[in-house]
Amino acid sequence: MSRNIRRGIYFNLDNTLAASAGALRGAFDRFAALCNVAPSDDVYAAIGGMSIPMAVALLKRRWSLPYTLDDLQRRYVPLIDAAFLDIVPAPGATTTLETAFRNGWSVGIVTSVSGARSRAWLARAKLASYVDIVVGGDEVVLGKPEPEPYRIALARSGCAREMSIAVEDSPSGAKSALAAGIRSYAVAPENNAAAEWPDGVRLIERLDELVPELERQRARRAAGRR
Prior knowledge:
Low-confidence stretches: 222-226
Strand order of the largest sheet: 5-4-1-6-7-8
Mean pLDDT: 90
Number of domains: 2
CATH superfamily of the largest domain: HAD superfamily/HAD-like
Radius of gyration: 18 Å
Shape: globular
Helix content: 40-55%
Oligomer: single chain
Strand content: 5-15%
CATH architecture of the largest domain: 3-Layer(aba) Sandwich
CATH class of the largest domain: Alpha Beta
CATH topology of the largest domain: Rossmann fold
Number of strands: 8
Order of helices and strands: EEHHHHEHEHEHEHEEH
């Protein structure tokens, strides 16, 4: 069905649309153990939002690991794949995506997770039918906080940046969206609300807080027909 869409809503995947924080931290801790290194919160925070190749390169430098980058990826990738098998949608994710799709928004995923891994998770979570485009971390040259991922999302979906919104979970992701000219929301529970968010980001605690925003345009069209 053709929907002639101009409005886009773009979600980060890990720790935003997917409730992945615990599972991915577990994968990180197991990877550290394989490398005979003690995991730490600050190092885990440093790789947040990075693609696996970028994260592995940083960990190799930070931990002075003697292994090649290929060896490290061969160790880390299966741990990440196993973690994604246990990850469920974040609270309110299904309702929010269904509402966006039903009201004519183009729905996209803009993430550091690879495109293939993202699509596989969306299918397992029964969310793929609501999603129009995916921009994975392996499909960009300059990841977040650079604007390239969101500029690609706008181009693929054919949406206007001034009519679109992004939903992120980190200052880096929000900066990427804002740099592309897209309004940004951030899922920031109380323990993350004190992060250094860029100006203009609106903080929410759950995805379904976006439902009124997603339904507003439909209400305006209905009012105009009266």
